[in-house]
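Why do we care about 3D structure at all? Because function follows from shape, and shape follows, mostly, from sequence. That is the central idea of this module. The next example makes it concrete: a single protein chain, its amino acid sequence, and then its structure expressed as tokens.
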Amino acid sequence: MDKPKVVLGVSGGIAAYKACELLRRLTESGHEVRVVPTEASLHFVGEATWAALSGNPASTRVWESVHEVPHVRIGQHADLVVVAPATADMLAKAAHGLADDLLTNTLLTARCPVVFAPAMHTEMWEHPATRENVATLRRRGAVVIEPAVGRLTGKDTGKGRLPDPEEIFEVCRRVLARGTAGPDLAGRHVVISAGGTREPLDPVRFLGNRSSGKQGYALARTAVARGARVTLVAANAALADPAGVDVVRVGTALQLREAVLKAAADADVVVMAAAVADFRPAVYVEGKIKKQDGQDPEPVALVRNPDVLAELSGQRSSPGQIVVGFAAETDDVLANGRAKLRRKGCDLLVVNEVGESKTFGSEENEAVILASNGEETPVPYGPKEVLSDVIWDQVASRLAPPAELRRA
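And the structure:
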């Protein structure tokens, strides 16, 4: 089979050196990559480096190899174009259809999915002009990844950092897998909870569970590839931040509830994939509980935690908001799942069987998606990103058209 053809555009920012790692991941995973840098980017990484790493010529010039019409052919033959880093200048040119070099010409001729990974100072990212350019590109179907928060050039810190190349690669891989399906979650804000809450008993002990957060993170990565703005409320998950995702870290069920309700205020979809503790110790002991020789420990009294899923379902911030829950069961899986769906009042409930060696911590999952209208969609055992895509398919089919489409 022909290798998928990827065009890697590199614009002139200090983060250009990170694109070398993205290029390596693309080539080592079986993609044929043509690097198209801008003239400014060559101040950071030279043409020879791109040619050596990709095995293909790299040029900024429209007038090179004119007989091959590169300014047309490169974009026409691509299966994916990814621009990383994408500077504010590049986003502006792409949004306004300017074509003054090989990369901007390639963007105009490409009919394949396009991904932009912006990198710039916070002030530039937050400027109204940049925000409008990003909105324009997203309306046209491009996937514009939200930049990460972290150290920028010099001593500056803030939002505008290029996400890790490995995570950009994951977005590209998922976009390629969708082919021409397009970003069906574009313009949507989705909130996802992931991981497992921990309820402290004393300074060194807690009541917790085995959830790794991998399913919630897979949902987040898949949603980004489908064009959504994603807020991930992560409870004790030791995983890399997905590219383009705003991550809010929490520890306990009460902290998770506060973060999810705040993020859900303007969300189109809320997916409660986290394993939230049903109970917490009634009393937190300030000092470590000591073992007393010859004495049994005092019983630990528990109190109920709030039911966040039921609260979200019963008090939706907008009439069209979709709420998705998860049910981890150990026996009578479907019967318990159907009962839980009725109690919680959510639109969809993802039911799976869990145990010491099932689901938690695994890269795979198997589930049945129950819908409030009685539909049941089984998802066979496989990667968690596959289940994620099926969940988003179910969500997308239930979302009302975006406001701008309704007005049209």
